[in-house]
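== Folding the chain ==

***
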Amino acid sequence: MQVPLQPGLTARAKPRLVLFDDQHPAPQLCGGSDAWCWTGDEIAAVAIHRPDSRDIAAVAEQAYREAWQQLSANGHAHWLRTWTYFDDILQGEGDAERYRQFCLGRARGLPRDAGFPAATVIGSASPGFWLWVIAARSPGQRFENPRQTPAWQYPREYGPQSPGFSRALWWAPGGLLLLSGTSSVVGHATVHAGDGAAQLDETLANIDALVTQVERDLGRVLKAGSLRLYVRDPAHVTLLAQCRARWPGAEWSAHQGTICRADLAVEIEGVFVAEPEPREN
C-alpha cells in the first residue's frame, strides 16, 4: 500500500511513502499493491513494530501512546486510519482473550478526545505487533453503518472495552472514504457463522449500505478505489473473483489473516474515491 500518489498518476509512479511492502505481516495470497491518492504535507504516517506482543494490553497501550505523541507533536492530531496486526489474536478465554485485551490497551493509549478513526485489526501468523497510523492536520468525518451497531457502542458481552473505531471516515481534502475492516456483522452479532461464501455476501451488503449512506449524506458519488480481502482459510481466496466482479474497476488484493472473532471467515477494507463534482458553466 502506497501513499500518497499525485492525482492521475498510475501505480507505477514513485510514492512519497510506502506503508506496506513485501513484509506485510498478513501474507499476500493474490493481487497487486494498493494505490492511495493524497497530496501535499497535510498528512503524516507512523509505523511502530514490537517483536514481542505477549503482554498485548501493555504493548498496545505503549504503541498507541507513542504514535499519538509523535503525530501530535508535528501538528497531525487527527487520526484518519489505523492498521494493527498481532499474533494469537483469539488466544485466551473470556475477557482474557488477546483481542479484548488489545482493545483495553488501545483505549488506554489514546486520549479521550482522540476520536475513532477507520481501522483494521487482524491476527498475524508471525509473532509480534505492528501498528500503522495515518493522521492529518485537518479532521475527517466519521460515518457509521445503518446495518450495524457502532463498534464503540458494543454491549459488554464483547469485552470490558468496546472497540475504538468508526465504520468509515470521510476525508474531504482527498475526496476519500476510508473503509474500516468490514465483516458479516449485522447489529452487533455475527451472521452465517463460519460460512465464508455467505459471509462475503453479507459483507458486501454492509459495504453497499455504508457507501450509499455516505453518498446520500455528502451528495457525492463514490467509486471503489483499492480494496483488500482478508481470509482466515486460504481456500477462501477463490472468493476474490466475486469481489472483483462486484467492483471490477477497483484494485484488489487478498491476504491471509485471523479475523477478530472466531466465527468470522472474511473481512474487507479499502478506499472509495469521490467522483469529480460537475463544474458550473
User: Anything to note?
Assistant: Residues 1-16 have pLDDT under 50 and may be disordered.
